[in-house]
Write the structure tokens for this entry.
Amino acid sequence: MSEHATRRAVLWRTAEVPGGTALALSRIALAILLAGFALATVVGFDLSLRVQAAVYLFGMVAMNLPHGGFEHFDNLRRRSASFQLRYVGLYLGSIAGFVALLFVAPVAGLALALGVAIAKGGHGGLHVMDATYGTDHLQTRPQRALAALVRGGAVMCVPIVAFPETFHTFSALMVDIFEPGGLAAVSQYFPLTRQLIGVGFGGLAIAHLALGYVRSAGTGSYVADAAETLLLVAYFAVVPVVVAVGLYFPLWYSLRQVARTTAVTSDPAADGEETADGLLTILDSDDTRLVALGAWGVLVAGSVATFGLAALLWLLSPQPLGGGGYLLGGVAFWSIFVSIIALPHVVIGSWFDRERGIWYVP
């Protein structure tokens, strides 16, 4: 295939790329939302915060939460029992540590929550690129880290610049869950922080795109990366932040992890560590009834554990809704809760589990 044809296949004819259908759907979904909200801005239509909050809760709870559970479930299958127990223990320990930080220093906890979202979007996205259209234009570890920082940074840095009032409102609600009025002490620095973040992120994005162009090998990976990076920046600059974040994870992050899983599954070289003595061996039984029963048990156990943790956080928090009512406060509470379980999602599920991990690419 010629260089020009390869670029076209990677950017447009994604069906020719492993996992290409999911890749195409993620791009189309964000492009449609971007176009729709750009048009709404032109005609002067504003979506109320209450409606935005409802969209966020639907996207993050109903659409995205099941995928997060699946990532761990798929990763822990065919692993040894000792590894599974160590994995779960470290996961719960990370959750306990994050919760403790939020109660002791909620502003620092909020900063960590923002960092978690950046790390999840950036590093998760980097592995999708590895598995699908490639990353041959990212030739060093620092350059890969830069790519992850820019793609993940778009999720939080761009909305801080584009929607400062909304971002500050929900940041205050999230801190208020643990310490009412706790953000007031640092609120005076927000305008300066916003400017620094805008300039810093802009510089990093330009560096990522320029360095990738210089090191591109003509395979189309740079073109796809650059186009998606610009799409992410435009999406978070135009789509109201509550809707943008609420739909980004199910319509971009999760869809693209499906693409990665599809690409890895279809790769005959995929040879992650496997064992038959783990706690989930029932799922590999030849008896379909046992498999169905095991899958049901795992689903129920995961749901009970997840919502049990949410209920515990609710009971421990001085002001679970941050004083924002059921919809706005619900967004604040769920954002904090998702960050709490997302920290070990990144640290334990990927960085600790380097042999395979939730974002495994052979």
Remarks:
- The chain is about 75% helix and 0% strand.
- Residues 288-316 form the longest helix (29 residues).
- The mean pLDDT is 89.
- Residues 2 and 63 are 39 Å apart (CA to CA).
